[in-house]
Amino acid sequence: MDKILEKAKAIKIIFFDIDDTLRVKTSGFMPESITQVFEKLREKGIMTGIATGRNLYGVVPEVRDLHPDFYVAINGAYVEEVKSHNILYKNTFSTPLVEEIITWLEQEKSEYAFVASDSLKVSKWDKIAKEAISPVYAELEEDPAYYQKQDIYQMLTISDHDDQLVLPEHLAQQIRLVRWHPNSSDVVPMAGSKAIGCQKVLEALDLKPENMLNFGDGLNDRELFDFAGLSVAMKISHPEILEKADYVTDTVENDGILKALQALKIID
User: What InterPro entries does the entry give (predicted)?
Assistant: First the structure.
């Protein structure tokens, strides 16, 4: 613990995942302590960021009201400085790649969703899509041709056999699947991750990974836990994330973030 406390002294920016880290995904519950945490970090001069698989449309009002300094959204594919709305980084899918993914998913009898910077559309809104997506984005409109109208940063697979989907070789060289729900996986660029997005923020601020702490719980935090100077996992995190964490804290409902930052002596 002494080594972790020493590392904590170098922290200048903290990134937070949303679902089951800042708030409970299924109920939307976010403890009052989260607002206190952000206020205390501002008083200490420590910057904050949201690092999420969601796009800006999915950054719910109570998270926006925390007034973070940065959004690292869509698993690192879109990075924005909040106050200025300056886009620090964007990584979109080409139209031919989107069409290749669609062809593959249709062959696999899987529906899909398109993720733009501040909007989403699905190929089909059915019971399977509702089970996966409603807790995060509510009901979405159907538009199988949405990629022809908007830049696409990410896609989602949607099926009742999502765990059986295997990328064909020509796609496996360009994209990868990250499961986030029994019925759905994020389809992200091979080189895409929250870590890359956070790295763009650090470069803009002339900071190093050892100046960064992150909180997370899921497999889309994997690269970030390898990258950050300090990483804190929520108690209910995926086993791989628990293994990678420098520190494991309590659940959202039990003020896990506040407890961790106090234990690390970053705030009182």
Answer: Cof, HAD-like_sf, HAD-SF_hydro_IIB, HAD_sf
CB 212 within 8 A of CB 67: no
Task: List residues with catalytic annotation.
Answer: 17
Give the CATH fold of the 95-189 domain: 3.30.1240
> pLDDT-derived band of residue 136, with 50, 70 and 90 as boundaries?
confident
pLDDT digits (tens, 9 = 90+) for 153-163: 999 999 999 99
For 25-55, how does the pLDDT look when each residue is reduced to its tens digit (9 = 90+)?
Answer: 989 999 999 999 999 999 999 999 999 999 9
Report the candidate in 212, 218, 211 with the shortest Cα–Cα distance to residue 241.
218
- State whether residue 28 is helix, strand or coil: coil
DSSP 133-178: HHHHH-S--B-TTGGGTS-B-EEEEE-TTGGG----HHHHTTEEEE
Q: Where are the domains of the chain?
A: 2-91+192-263, 95-189
Has domain 2-91+192-263 been given CATH number 3.40.50.1000? Answer: yes
Pairing of strands 111-115, 13-16: unpaired
Among 190, 188, 192, 169, which residue's Cα sits nearest to residue 178? 188
